[in-house]
Write a structure and sequence with these properties.
2 copies of one chain form a homodimer. With about 280 residues, chain A is an alpha/beta fold. Chain A contains 6 helices and 14 strands. In chain A, helix 4 links the parallel strand 7 and strand 8. The radius of gyration of chain A is 18 Å and the shape is globular.
């Protein structure tokens, strides 16, 4: 399998002028595709504020831009479910339209006021570039989810993200970058975080997009001034198919799944889950 | 619960002069206890090369030193099991002797030539300072194990370690430090890695001991020149009992254990595990 060119389009969707967001996403895709990207990633909820029922229209716009380079686009959007609930979702789109939608399993902050949590595990989507696992932002803090995606065959995990800037000691980088790197390292996969930047209603975002390789090294990002910019990286997903880490070790075969504690993962129906806020 | 003073005694056990290793460990404990440490951690296999049947004698020496300050000592040793197998183990010892032994579940490199893998999950040991989870070195690369320890109540996870120095990009720190930090961050626990330093039979070790807090920040370490030195940190384990990360989130309650993939954790007997080398 040939290598692919991945683009993470970091920018600031504008919730105050929602009508600008769909063309902004299309522009970002068009520029990335023109620069040779095969897989283009957009931030979380990048249609934010846009008339919700029109999300389909927005995604159709992504598909049209994808078609120009036969690319794949993955981005976050506000989904209106047939059940009437809103979901914080990620869509994988190609020239033929929406191929997969994932509804964020782990809601953050005040999101439960607006969104219902997803009820299905994040998917691994077969694409002509290889299997791509979907996640959204806060999901990255749950190693059960990202490890699960890797165990199900994902070679690249893509997370549209809106990461608020957090206090930290002067010498430390954002935890987001270590999270991406260590998630990639422990499961020998590529991890792409496409963050938003800027400030919205008093919340300053990290603008911390990064692309990590299976060694846990950053192939691209972070963007030094945390501005609106597109990161590019060449990924050879064959590298992520190889889980051996030396002559004697293998990140997956060395696991001891029959020894891990039951609380890690409970079959549906056996867990009393605390109600959300 | 009052805070505790944790010490990680980084030094180089000498496999060529094994008779020096037990007194070296006792000296390290004595110095740490004299400096006020309540919990003292030693590197992996720090009795390495010492006549194996005498491991009990070595651990009795730890207990004697622990008694001087009513401290707890955790360190790696080569265990001769009653089954005749050798195990790469960690012992938790206090003035009354050995309170817990953990046999490393995930063997690294050529260890399977010498050691049998553990068959029991790592324990969470109740101590008067709080619940302490045990692990050894390479275990840190398996989020299933460290998450499991935290879910079982560990507020501090302690890993005697022999971490070989690895190549990395010039701008990156050792992956060991990010692993410790992210393990601490995702489960809101303290993580103490007590590494060895120096070179043994051509292998250069990282000398990368660190103590991470539940924010994923390093409270102590790494030691700049990677030399033999003891790290100290004050830990308030109450901080690790609190899993809420803000008004709306909780690192544990936000988990979706009924949605995670089955492959994460298989009950014993249902997994065909590949044979080791």
């Amino acid at each position: 399998m040939a290598s692919l060119t991945l683009a993470c389009c970091q920018y600031a969707p504008d919730v105050e002028r929602p009508e600008l967001n769909p063309p902004r996403a299309r522009d970002a895709i068009a520029h990335a595709v023109a620069a040779g990207a095969n897989v283009v990633v957009l931030p979380e909820l990048c249609t934010s504020g846009y008339v919700l029922a029109s999300a389909e229209e927005a995604l159709a716009g992504w598909a049209r831009e994808a078609a120009r380079g036969d690319a794949i686009v993955i981005g976050g959007f506000c989904e209106l479910g047939e059940d009437g609930n809103l979901y914080n979702s990620s869509a994988l789109v190609d020239r033929d339209g929406v191929q997969a939608v994932y509804r964020k399993l782990h809601l953050w902050g005040e999101e439960p006021r607006w969104f219902a949590p997803g009820e299905e595990h994040a998917p691994v989507v077969p694409t002509r570039h290889g299997p791509i696992g979907l996640g959204v932002c806060y999901d990255l803090e749950f190693p059960e989810l990202t490890r699960g995606l890797a165990l199900e065959g994902a070679e690249l995990i893509v997370l549209p993200t809106n990461w608020p800037r957090e206090p930290r000691p002067p010498a430390s980088g954002p935890v987001l970058h270590s999270l991406a790197a260590i998630t990639a390292y422990t499961s020998r996969v590529f991890v792409a975080v496409c963050d938003r930047n800027g400030t919205e209603r008093g919340v300053e975002f990290e603008g911390g997009s990064v692309i990590a390789d299976p060694n846990g090294w950053l192939l691209a990002g972070p963007i030094a001034d945390r501005g609106a910019r597109t990161l590019f990286a060449e990924l050879d997903l064959d590298v992520a198919r190889e889980k051996r880490t030396g002559p004697h070790n293998d990140a997956f075969a060395d696991r001891r799944p029959d020894r891990y504690v039951a609380a890690l993962r409970e079959p549906a129906g056996e867990v009393a889950r605390p109600l959300g806020a």
